[in-house]
Write a structure and sequence with these properties.
- With 405 residues, the chain is an alpha/beta fold.
- The protein folds into 2 domains: 160 residues, FAD/NAD(P)-binding domain (3-Layer(bba) Sandwich); 173 residues, D-Amino Acid Oxidase, subunit A, domain 2 (D-Amino Acid Oxidase, Chain A, domain 2), CATH 3.30.9.
- The protein contains 10 helices and 19 strands.
- Strand 10 and strand 11 form a beta hairpin.
- The two termini are 38 Å apart.
- Bound molecules: flavin-adenine dinucleotide.
């Protein structure tokens, strides 16, 4: 059956990218967003297009393709989303950490993946407020920085210009199935019939999938962020990760020399909150900093006292040049995840297309828009989708259980 009329659920990076590519193929697209475009994780993330620690297989393939796509999108989309080919680092401050980071660099280089080691002086040149005793870093020149909420609005605007109807403030309550096919959605404004439905609702997708009896292995992880006032006189060139993040990534944990003790602060254990120590700078000079990670039972977009304290604890320690800078805003977001880190991109029921469970949506989200468009059109997808099928073995997320990437 030829699919002409498509309902998309969710106005994040995945939903708007799907709307953009499908509308440009001449499809009749209606996107439903419960609140406003970029309300979810995409509007709350610090803009890492992060290739550095992507696992071999689909993760690397989609991220490399996604990074290449940005070279086109920055000229093609109607609004500037502050793309910067910034590169990215994971710095270290002890010799023990350095040994493991250097092993990471040579392992990844041996796979032909872009990665270098840089010394402390180079890190201090790139990241002005960092501590003087920083010893070195891994550096991935392919990492890039974006203003994600602006990218999402730009995709939505591009889709609108190509004829899509973007409906903000309209919640989808359920997906409608008749016989063996999905035929539309039930919305706050009534029934909407379509030839196909694209489910791109981020951490909220699981509830909607339930309405057609699909058990989606997608959980939600809360991350907390603080933003300074604009400080263009303080330069943070690359995306910056601190040493604590390494334990989150399989590529580090699988190294023969790996030792988590070198990358854990006592306050993480005390609070049972791990910290993804990170920093990026936007075009106006504001610096985004984070991120404590936890797993509330229900989706909760409010930061907590404990979470903010932990988010800033490592920043205060490692970035003395920022101690006196004013904080402008704080927020939290909920990142969707699957137990194996790969998204779910598939058509489990005829007419239902899943674009769900994106951990690294900035790298993979725009490509998901292309991949789902290919599935809808019955074309060969640009990347093999075997690893991201709905029916692969995934653990159902348990509340409070930490996930690793
Ligand atoms: C603080 C934080 C930092 C992060 N850092 C990065 C990073 O630097 N790089 C990176 O690649 N990834 C990062 N991530 C993850 C990244 O943000 C996600 O991978 C990505 O945004 C997921 O996009 P999405 O479109 O699937 O979901 P979302 O952006 O969450 O969009 C889902 C949308 O669906 C809407 N919705 C929900 N239910 C309904 C309904 N019933 N009806 C209609 N609409 C509905 C929501 O309002 C929301 O707007 C981070 C996440 C967080 C929270």
């Amino acid at each position: 059956m030829s699919i002409e009329k498509i309902a998309i659920v969710g106005g994040g990076i995945v939903g708007t990218a799907c709307a953009y590519y499908l509308a440009r193929e001449g499809k009749q697209v209606t996107l439903f967003e419960e609140t406003v475009i970029a309300h979810g994780a995409s509007g709350r993330n610090p803009g890492f297009v992060w290739l550095h620690t992507r696992n071999p297989g689909f993760g690397r393939e989609v991220s490399l393709a996604g990074r290449e796509l940005y070279d086109t999108l920055k000229d093609e989309l109607p609004l500037d989303f502050e793309f910067r080919a910034s590169g990215g680092i994971i710095f270290y401050t002890t010799e023990e950490q350095g040994e493991i980071v250097r092993e990471f660099v040579s392992t990844v280089q041996a796979d032909g993946y872009p990665m270098e080691h840089i010394d402390g002086a180079e890190v201090r040149r790139m990241v002005q407020p960092i501590r003087q005793d920083v010893l070195g870093a891994s550096y991935c020149p392919a990492d890039a920085c974006i203003n994600t909420p602006l990218l999402v609005r730009s995709f939505a605007e591009g889709a609108r210009q190509a004829g899509a109807d973007i409906r903000e403030g309209v919640a989808v309550h359920s997906i409608i199935q008749e016989g063996d096919r999905v035929v539309g959605v039930e919305t706050a404004e009534g029934r909407f019939e379509a030839d196909a439905v694209v489910l791109g609702a981020g951490a909220w997708a699981r509830k909607l999938a339930d309405t057609v009896g699909i058990q989606l292995g997608v959980g939600g992880e809360r991350l907390q962020v603080a933003a300074t006032v604009p400080v263009p006189e303080i330069k943070v060139e690359p995306l910056v990760y601190g040493p604590l993040v390494t334990k989150q990534y399989r590529l580090f944990r699988d190294l023969p020399s790996w030792n988590a003790d070198h990358f854990t602060e006592p306050y993480e254990d005390e609070a049972n909150i791990e910290v993804l120590e990170l920093m990026s700078q936007r075009k106006n000079g504001e610096i985004l900093m984070g991120c404590a990670m936890d797993y509330p039972d229900e989706i909760d977009l409010r930061p907590t006292v404990e979470g903010l304290a932990r988010s800033l604890q490592s920043i205060v320690q490692d970035f003395p040049g920022l101690r006196g800078v004013a904080v402008d805003r704080v927020w939290a977001g909920v990142l969707p995840f699957t137990s194996d880190t790969a998204p779910i991109i598939d058509e489990p029921i005829p007419g239902l297309f899943l674009g769900s469970g994106h951990v690294y949506g900035n790298a993979a989200g725009p490509m998901t828009g292309k991949l789902i468009t290919s599935l809808v059109l019955g074309r060969e997808p640009e990347i093999d989708l075997e690893e991201v099928r709905f029916d692969r073995a995934l653990e159902m997320p348990g509340s409070g259980v930490a996930v690793r990437w």
